[in-house]
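User: Hi! I'm working on a homework problem where we have to compare a predicted structure to a textbook description. Could you give me the structure for the chain below?
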Amino acid sequence: MLLTIALVLATAFPSTSRTSWMTPQSFHLTIGMTREETVRALETKGWPAKKGRTDDEMVVDYSDDKALTLEFRKGRLRSVRFELFAMLPDVRAAFEEQKSLLRTVHGEPKKSKKSVLVYDDRLPNILVVLSDDPKSDYGKKGVGYLAVRYFDPLFER
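Assistant: Happy to help. Predicted structure tokens:
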């Protein structure tokens, strides 16, 4: 009986949130940590990273419709970009959910437009971009894109 209770408590319950995973803290990441620390933090939680488009990029495939792109400068984590692909109504709802979450945690964004939020009054900066144009190539297929990027703009290029 005790084993059953422990198993139930240890099991992760699925979240109804589409965007709760879109924070560095969800993956135990911090902007500025070394590449080795980053890889270790990801692998410890079962998220293997693979090489990205360049030597300074790594990608984690979170699921079929979700990914993380990590950017490094001089061996340190400069940026974490969370990416979600979903049907247009779902991606719009995810943007609204993310906007609400960020406002609760960080207050009003420094800049806000219909499909962009910018928090550049803190480190790391946070940029949220929604691509839901039904006339775009993906939009014609009914698919949109949400990106949430945490980054340090002062990090040397």
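For your comparison, note the following. The chain is about 25% helix and 30% strand. The chain has one domain: 17-151. Good luck with the assignment!
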